[in-house]
Design goal:
Elements: E1 28-30, E2 35-37, H1 38-55, H2 65-75, H3 80-98, E3 113-116, H4 123-134, E4 138-142, H5 158-166, H6 171-174, E5 178-182, H7 203-214, E6 217-220, E7 234-237, E8 242-247, H8 252-260, H9 279-283, H10 288-294, H11 298-302, E9 306-309, H12 315-323, H13 329-338, E10 343-346, H14 348-361, H15 365-382, E11 389-394, H16 396-399, E12 406-409, H17 411-415
Parallel strand pairs: 3-8, 3-9, 4-5, 5-8, 10-11
Antiparallel strand pairs: 1-2, 6-7, 11-12
Helix pairs in contact: 2-3, 2-4, 8-10, 12-14, 14-15
């Protein structure tokens, strides 16, 4: 009688996380002490994405558009329409981040912003105020200093390095920051036709900006500078970084005027001139085709969906800029004098003179600072030595350099 030795088959390998047997999986990843199936890998990936998304949230929560508008109004005078558009865009952008990692939902596009307006109308101030209010990292770049990779100048990715340092080397916070690119109009194509030569400072830079504006994983050198093969690089995802671009776009009102102008040709035709509109009314009607004619490439225009026009500052607005915001120049100088125990007073005539001189310079709110500093420089030099002075009065004559400030002595000094 023969007999066979029966052995028990080996136990079926199972996923250490869900217990799924190997024959019901596509892939089983084996580790030293555990295994994980492809289903659990996918689920774990979603858990990690959601955890990262929760980490990339604003420290103070997502403020509503009206709240953002109110905070901008504390520092930026006028420009209500631009502030409304920007408030909505910023709110939608950060709401989008909270759902960016959840599969199956409608994918929301980025709300990058293009601000168009003359110099000194508050473009940079709006971007700075937003970043400060939202408590997110902020970096500024000048488009005119950026060149294509391989040319002498600053790489596009160096802008991300600045943001990384502004975030105190916290990649997660940098990836929800704000980058303001100024002078974007200065990299417009000089010719509507495509050139066979390289345009280092124009179209080529626009092309280089496309990827980071839309959202890409860029490898940046933490210390900045040019990349080299042996350098340590960090990956930063620009998908949730809000880009705000600004420019004066000098002459774009003429392009809009030609597009909106009505005319007729031929005998008996009604002769109509272009509609007469102010500068702001003109740029408020800007269309993508106008930006295209100005020299921006279609791909860049498409990545800046929110366009916010800013108006030139009137005399009334300039007066408000000088006196109303929390960081108004007159309030800043008054605080500096107060720290020395002296009261500073500007007469209404003096303020009007500052505005008049600033308007002549035609550089917007920036001119207010240069005029005021010119007036106050000598006085600030003498301020620490003004013993026994209770108040300093700035009059129109002081602003126009035809008189000196009026010094009011303290009561104690008068009685001495």
């Amino acid at each position: 009688m023969s007999s066979t030795l029966e052995t028990n088959p080996p136990p079926l390998e199972r996923c250490s996380f869900c217990g799924r047997p190997i024959d019901l999986t596509k892939v089983m990843v084996r580790g030293p002490k555990a295994t994980i199936c492809d289903v659990c890998v996918v689920n774990a990936t979603q858990v990690v994405k959601l955890a990262v998304a929760q980490k990339r949230t604003l420290k103070r929560g997502i403020p509503k558009p009206r709240e953002i508008f109110g905070k901008l109004s504390d520092y930026v005078i006028g420009q209500d329409e631009a502030k409304r558009r920007i408030s909505v865009a910023v709110y939608n952008h950060y709401k989008r981040i909270t759902s960016a990692s959840i599969e199956g939902e409608v994918e929301l596009d980025k709300s990058n912003i293009l601000m168009i307006g003359p110099t000194g109308t508050g473009k940079t101030l709006i971007a700075q105020t937003l970043a400060r209010f939202l408590e997110v990292p902020f970096a500024i770049a000048d488009a005119t200093t950026i060149t294509e990779a391989g040319y002498v100048g600053e790489d596009v990715e160096n802008v991300l390095v600045r943001l990384y340092h502004a975030a105190d080397a916290d990649i997660a916070q940098a990836e929800i920051g704000i980058i303001y690119i100024d002078e974007i109009d200065k990299i417009a194509r000089k010719d509507a036709s495509t050139s066979i030569t390289r345009d280092v400072s124009g179209e080529g830079v626009q092309q280089a900006l496309l990827k980071i504006l839309e959202g890409t994983v860029a490898n940046i050198p933490p210390e900045g500078g040019r990349k080299h093969p042996e350098q340590r690089l960090l990956a930063i995802n620009t998908k949730n970084i809000l880009f705000i671009c600004g420019g004066a776009f000098e002459g774009i009102d003429g392009i809009i005027s030609r597009r909106t102008g009505k005319g007729a040709m031929g005998f008996g035709a009604e002769v109509r001139g272009r509609r007469k509109m102010g500068f702001y009314e003109m740029i408020a009607q800007v269309e993508p085709e106008d930006l295209l004619r100005y020299g921006l490439i279609p791909e860049l225009i498409g990545r800046l969906p929110v366009v916010a026009p800013l108006d030139r500052l009137s005399a009334e607005a300039m007066m408000s800029v000088l006196t109303d915001p929390k960081n108004a120049l007159t309030k800043q100088y008054a605080k500096l004098f107060e720290m020395e125990g002296v009261k500073l007073t500007f007469t209404q005539d003096a303020l009007e003179a500052v505005v008049e001189l600033a308007l002549k310079r035609d550089t917007g709110a920036r001119a207010l600072r240069s005029v005021t500093e010119s007036v106050m420089n000598d006085l600030m030099f003498d301020l620490p030595d003004l013993d026994g002075i209770e108040e300093v009065l700035i009059t129109r004559e002081v602003v126009l350099k035809t008189g000196k400030p009026e010094m009011i002595e303290s009561k104690a000094r008068k009685s001495a």
